[in-house]
Amino acid sequence: MQPIVVRLRRLVIGLLGTLALGATAAECELTVATYNLRYASDTPPNAWPQRRPLMKACLEAIQPDLIGTQEGLYRQLKDLAADLPEYDWIGTGRDGGSRGEFMAIFYRRARFEPLEYDHFWLSDTPELIASSTWGNTNRRMVTWVRFRDRESGVEFYFWNTHLDHALQEAREKAARLIRERVGALKTRLPVLLVGDFNAVAGANPVYDLLVREGGFQDTWHLARERRNAEYNTFNGFAPPRREGQRIDWILVRGEAEVAWSEIVTFARDGRFPSDHFPVVARLRLRAPAP
């Protein structure tokens, strides 16, 4: 009888091990950043050739797994991809093709597999390339990707956007459209929504539309530790101001834990890579139970 007992014991241990591995595989830890790169049209000392090595150094210091970028032009993004060879990126110009600013998503190619992606414009005709119908002169858009984490098997969505800088009505309509489009996914997978929202978190109806009414949570407030909370995320190529105005957000829908979030005030010799600071979060996503 002893061999049967031993075999049963081994079977139970094996099943428990499988369950433990399954629990581990259902979680995905990653570092996420949102970063308005500032388009490449400034003059020295803030021209892109001068800022490029600063940007490279900043991102190498952060070591993000995923980056939602805003404002990058095609040649800028090609430079960034050359400087960060472990990343691939997905995006399209807001004016179509390689034209205009991108909402590009950079990701570690060895770790993440893009399963699908798409773009839409923040207008009444979201499928029409370069459309703008809400009075805003700059076209605004969303790029999104559904990723699979090769390490854990967890799948999740990553959405990246840049709302209008001038018109509150356009920002609110954009938030409603994004909320509607995320809802149309009809998914239980986690959804990360990052970007430059041109609205102060907690002090603008856009925040209410997405967070208080839209089912998203702000990773900044979920974080057990918040670093540089007193700083604005827009710096205008000047020393950071201590007003706590955070217009760059990392939001999440679904089960998540956030270890820390940080406004990264990287500078070198008094110079900044961009007129925004990147916002970074270290989080754990949990896949929904089958």
> Which whole number gives the mean pLDDT?
92
Placed side by side, the strands forming the largest sheet appear as: 3-4-2-1-13-12-10
Approximate helicity band: 25-40%
Overall tally of domains: 1
| Strand and helix order | HEHEHEEEEEHEHEHEEEE
The general outline is: globular
Distance linking N and C termini: 38 Å
CATH fold title: Deoxyribonuclease I, Chain A
User: From the coordinates shown, what is the CATH architecture?
Assistant: 4-Layer Sandwich
Q: Number of helical runs?
A: 6
The Cα radius of gyration reads: 21 Å
How many strands, what sense, and barrel or not for the largest sheet?
Answer: 7 strands, mixed
The level 1 CATH classification is Alpha Beta
Poorly predicted runs are: 1-25
Secondary-structure class: alpha+beta
Q: What is the fourth-level CATH superfamily?
A: Endonuclease/exonuclease/phosphatase
Describe this protein's structure.
Helix 4 runs parallel beside helix 5. Helices cover 27% and strands 29% of the residues. It is built from six helices and 13 strands. Strand 7, helix 4 and strand 8 form a beta-alpha-beta unit. The N terminus is likely disordered. The chain has one domain: Deoxyribonuclease I, Chain A. The chain is α+β, with helices and mostly antiparallel strands and 290 residues long. It is globular, with a radius of gyration of 21 Å. The relative contact order is 0.16. The longest helix is centred in the first third of the chain and has 24 residues. The strands form two sheets. The chain has a seven-stranded mixed sheet. Strands 5-6-7-8-11-9 form a six-stranded mixed sheet.
